[in-house]
Design brief:
Rieske Iron-sulfur Protein, alpha+beta, 6-stranded antiparallel beta sheet, 2 helices, 4-stranded antiparallel beta sheet, binds FE2/S2 (inorganic) cluster, 33% strand, 138 residues, 2 domains, elongated
Length: 138
Amino acid sequence: MRRRAFLSWASIGWAMSRVPAVFTAFLAACQGEKTTASGLQKVGTIADLDQKGFLKLDSPSPIAVVRNPADPKSLLAVNPTCTHQGCLVEWKAERKSYVCPCHGAVYGADGSVQKEPATKSLAKYEASLEGQDVVVKL
Ligand code: FES
């Protein structure tokens, strides 16, 4: 009986020692869906981009990706947080620009200011394709 109790407690102890490893593996698997092996942030697929005209991701950092209007083979990625007072800008495909819903600032697809009150460009990211995935270097 003592041996059986010891083995039971030893089994529980062994199982509990594995909880952090299992939890870590679970977190890595969850993050693996959003990052590539090279550590780039996945934002979506090229098919989604072509269907919607833009891609948007809210976390870990806000990211917006569009095709470069001047060279549709290349991608442009920005942080869509308005540099005026922090509202999230919206992509307006018909204008090929980002418009801030709060005070009307306008930015080009590359994040450059086209209309005040913002005076500073949106933060830019490097965007590229990895297979069918649109990825961004944060
Ligand atoms: S917060 Fe965007 S224009 Fe003011």
